[in-house]
Write a structure and sequence with these properties.
The complex is a heterodimer of chains A (297) and B (295). By secondary structure, chain A is an all-alpha fold. Chain A has a single domain, classed as Orthogonal Bundle (MetI-like fold). Helix content of chain A is 70%, strand content 0%. Chain A contains 15 helices and no strands. In chain A, helix 1 (14-49) packs across helix 14 (261-281), helix 2 packs across helix 14 (261-281) and helix 13 packs antiparallel against helix 14 (261-281). The radius of gyration of chain A is 25 Å and the shape is flat. The two termini of chain A are 30 Å apart. Chain B is mainly alpha-helical. Chain B has a single domain (66-294), classed as MetI-like fold (Orthogonal Bundle). Chain B is built from 13 helices and two strands. In chain B, strands 1-2 form a two-stranded antiparallel ribbon. In chain B, helix 1 (6-37) crosses helix 13 (267-294), helix 7 (158-186) runs antiparallel to helix 10 (216-231) and helix 12 (253-263) runs antiparallel to helix 13. In chain B, 42% of the residues are buried. The chains are: A mainly alpha (297), B mainly alpha (295). At the A-B interface, helix 1, helix 4, helix 5, helix 6 and helix 9 of A face helix 1, helix 3, helix 4, helix 5 and helix 6 of B.
């Protein structure tokens, strides 16, 4: 990253270095202020979650007395708000986990299968299908909300996992991303495997998919993040509490006019933590994945 | 190219069937249905009855109702503030984090990106407590009073309530915008800046005459996606202002759609709203495409 010395030799003076240091400190100060500002709401949430409940929410970023009571009560919040004695946040976490895993894995399989033939094969209607896959990106999801709800309701799928999973098992963006990645890995590789007598499914599963690891990582992150944080659709199709995913359940929790701030904040923390931990562990993939999704999607 | 047998060709369709059946049932058919249902009387409570054709009844009702123009105005105001401001701050953050003078790039990237991966429901709930409608319980008001300012009725005042919705949306998307701009900045060769350094170009000129023009494609991309997603804001409004309080001053197109379709159950009217959303977003997309192509 360092500049070539000769190009700037006339500037390599003491005063130049000093001005660079001043700039560097200045920018760091600005960035630190903005970073603190950005993290304050979350730090406040954490601090309040660990503080004993007070009448008015504390305007502090550090808890005065650390307590874990809020977390254990928040875990049983359906009981806490007098809704249901059996349910815990574990139920909602599990619902979210099932939906997220199913959409992510199922979606990657359907997208990549379609992308495989759309990239390597010629058959009637292929261009139309490519066009349709792109067309799905132009249709805002809310436009289809009412008829989707009617379809789900007629299928008798309200309050089920299917309702939260099946509509999202394919995505135009996934197909497009997979296809362009497949085309960029050598087409000859696929054809020579074909000459060797390998079946298409074998080529797909043992040659194409293993090479596509980076794009699989990208899609895993995009799909998992999207489905974990999905809110409006499950809000519409899950009226039964025991089927609610985490996001809907905590939305419901905060809507009960709970004024025990520590309890609320503990609930929000539990809801936010799983994805945050995954993000901190694989932040490199997240950043790269979002950029890749933006450029091509 | 190896010529495939007919049987093999037939097998190709098996690969595309799962995805395209899903598109057909859950995207294309519902899109067509939306247009049809917008011309019908159809309610959630009698979902098994056939829709009754009423022509442009709901469209007429929409365009003459104050509520519709209110949500259009609210959505427009929300978008006009959220998108440009968060894009400018996001660009400045990206330029600073990208600078050679900044050492802990990963720290800033991760820290600023955390809001984007946080759940909007949880974040909005936290903002709702910070700007509590019970004025003395609001954390922000406690700070204001400590600093010697007056309390503000954040969620009870139409303007301030919209401000809070805009604030939480910007707060959440800043990190994303920064990351996308950082991707764009990585594509710009260092040579250009070195040449500029030799000519003693000021930092401001570097930003406006070199960086910004070279980032035009990224800017167009963000402008389009951010505008489209801003037009569809729902979660923060649903959580923080219960879907539009006070007096509908924060209600948006999507909360309107949600109220009509899923609270009142008038699905014909809700479909008319979704068709309007579709038309608006299509126009925005076409404009964006024109701008990108001209470039």
């Amino acid at each position: 990253m360092s500049r070539p010395k000769n190009a700037l030799s006339d500037k390599n003076t003491q005063s130049y270095k000093r001005s660079q240091r001043v700039k560097s400190i200045g920018m760091n100060i600005i960035l630190i202020i903005i970073t603190i500002f950005m993290l304050t709401p979350l730090l406040w949430m954490l601090s309040t979650a660990f503080s004993p409940n007070t009448l008015i929410p504390p305007a502090k970023l550090l808890p005065h007395d650390i307590t874990f009571e809020n977390f254990s009560r928040a875990w049983f919040f359906p009981k806490e708000i007098g809704l249901n004695d059996q349910l815990t946040m574990g139920t909602f976490l599990m619902n979210s986990l099932i939906v997220t895993i199913a959409i992510t894995i199922g979606g990657i399989i359907t997208d990549s299968l379609a992308a495989y033939v759309l990239a390597f094969k010629d058959f009637p209607g292929k261009n139309l299908l490519i066009f349709l896959a792109l067309a799905t990106l132009m249709i805002p999801s809310y436009v289809t909300l009412v008829p989707q709800y009617i379809i789900i309701s007629k299928l008798k799928w309200l309050n089920s996992y299917q309702a939260q999973i099946v509509p999202f098992l394919a995505s135009g963006m996934g197909i497009t991303l997979f296809r362009s990645h497949f085309l960029s890995v050598s087409k000859e590789l696929v054809e020579s495997a074909k000459i060797d007598g390998a079946s298409d499914f074998r080529i797909y599963s043992t040659i194409v998919m293993p090479i596509a690891k980076p794009i699989i990582a990208t899609m895993t992150i995009l799909k998992a993040m999207w489905s974990w944080n999905m809110y409006m659709w499950p809000l519409i199709v899950c009226k039964k509490v025991e089927m609610m995913p985490l996001q809907v359940s905590i939305g419901f929790f905060q809507g009960q006019n709970v004024t025990q701030w520590g309890l609320l904040c503990a609930g929000m923390t539990i809801a936010m933590l799983p994805l945050l931990i995954v993000f901190l562990l694989c932040q490199k993939f997240f950043v790269g994945g979002i950029q890749a999704g933006a450029v091509k999607g | 190219m190896i010529v495939a047998s007919r049987r093999e060709k037939a097998a190709y369709y098996l690969y595309v069937i799962p995805a395209f059946v899903c598109f057909g049932v859950f995207i294309f058919w519902p899109t067509i249905q939306s247009f049809y249902l917008s011309l019908c009387k159809y309610s959630m409570s009698s979902i098994n009855k056939d829709p009754k054709f009423v022509g442009l009844y709901y469209y007429e009702g929409l365009f003459t109702s104050d509520k519709f123009w209110q949500v259009m105005k609210n959505t427009g105001v929300f978008t006009l503030f959220t998108v440009p401001v968060s894009m400018i701050i996001g660009l400045l953050l990206a330029v600073m984090v990208h600078s050679k003078l900044i050492k802990h790039k990963t720290f800033y990237k991760v820290a600023l990106y955390i809001p984007y991966v946080s759940s909007m429901v949880a974040v909005a709930s936290v903002f709702k407590i910070l700007f509590n409608s019970n004025m003395s319980a609001s954390v922000v008001n406690q700070l204001l009073v400590n600093l010697g300012f007056e309390k503000v009725n954040w969620l009870g005042d139409p303007t301030w309530a919209m401000f809070v919705i805009i604030l939480v949306s910007m707060w959440k998307s800043l990190g994303y915008i920064m990351i996308i701009y950082l991707g764009g900045l990585c594509g710009i060769s260092d040579d250009i800046y070195e040449a500029a350094d030799l000519d003693a170009v000021t930092p401001w000129k570097k930003l406006t005459k070199i960086t910004a023009p070279l980032l035009k494609p990224t800017t167009f991309f963000l402008l389009a996606t951010e505008t489209i997603s801003s037009f569809q804001v729902f979660t923060p409004v649903n959580i923080i202002t219960n879907g539009g309080d006070p007096f509908g001053s924060t209600s948006t197109l999507i909360t309107f759609l949600y109220d009509e379709g899923f609270k009142s159950g008038t699905m014909g009217k809700a479909s008319a709203i979704s068709v309007v959303i579709f038309v608006i977003l299509s126009i925005l997309t076409v404009i964006q495409k024109k701008l990108t192509d001209e470039d």
